[in-house]
């Protein structure tokens, strides 16, 4: 009886072990063949939604690469335009809209008694601010001044235009302090064509009565001086002793796209790693 009873218990134990190991084997085998559907279920809707963040930041970084190329091409184009050979002032002044940043040659006489002052402005050297990256420099205050815009009576036609003669320091704003720079008689001038400028944000309105101009409103300047709304910015070739410093055409545009590229790509890499650790690495 004892032997029979032990045989029955052993048989029952053997059956239970077989069932257990069968389940374990099936589970291990099944875990090796996870379907895409089961992966999706484990990542969940929130995981797929958060994947938008690294994808979007990567796309923004790529867009900034394209913007950087476009800005560099534009700066190079402006330099090429300003350095081109000067052309004569067209008879039809409406053609000047297609000639912005092109040098134009004119001949005539300055009307110094009607000059205007645009500013305050920073001195520009070689197409860029002389105080760039010098926020704490002691020369920053010295480089603050005004642009002298003077009506110019053309010699070959009965018309008057505006010439931005250049920059003078604040202490020389009064023409009496720079008498030698007040060129008299008929002269030749080469200047860069500039068009109407809309009032920038946060910039106050121009004050005609005080001859204080904050932005390049050609229509308003022409009305005050009796000239046409045409402006040329004189090059450095015609600088005179004690006179304004020419070449005040800014041809360097703000280009911070490299920092934007690094920012967006770094965010994309960081969020991609976090997404992988949070969701993909847990999928078994």
UniProtKB/TrEMBL annotation:
Please tell me one Gene Ontology term that the record gives under cellular component: mitochondrial inner membrane
Matching Pfam families: SURF1
Q: Which PROSITE patterns match?
A: SURF1 (PS50895)
Q: Does the keyword DNA damage apply?
A: no
Q: How does it sit in the membrane?
A: Multi-pass membrane protein
**What's in the keyword line of the UniProt record?**
Membrane, Mitochondrion, Mitochondrion inner membrane, Transmembrane, Transmembrane helix
Compartments annotated for it: namely:
Membrane; Mitochondrion inner membrane
Q: Where is the signal peptide?
A: none
Q: Does the keyword Transmembrane apply?
A: yes
InterPro entries according to UniProt? Surf1/Shy1, Surf1/Surf4
Q: Which GO terms describe its biological process?
A: mitochondrial respiratory chain complex IV assembly
What superkingdom heads the lineage?
Eukaryota
Query: Where's it mainly located?
Result: membrane
Q: Which family does the record assign?
A: Belongs to the SURF1 family.
PANTHER family membership:
SURFEIT LOCUS PROTEIN, SURFEIT LOCUS PROTEIN 1
Role this protein plays = Probably involved in the biogenesis of the COX complex.
Protein name according to UniProt: SURF1-like protein
Q: Which organism is it from?
A: Tribolium castaneum
Q: State which gene encodes it.
A: AUGUSTUS-3.0.2_03192
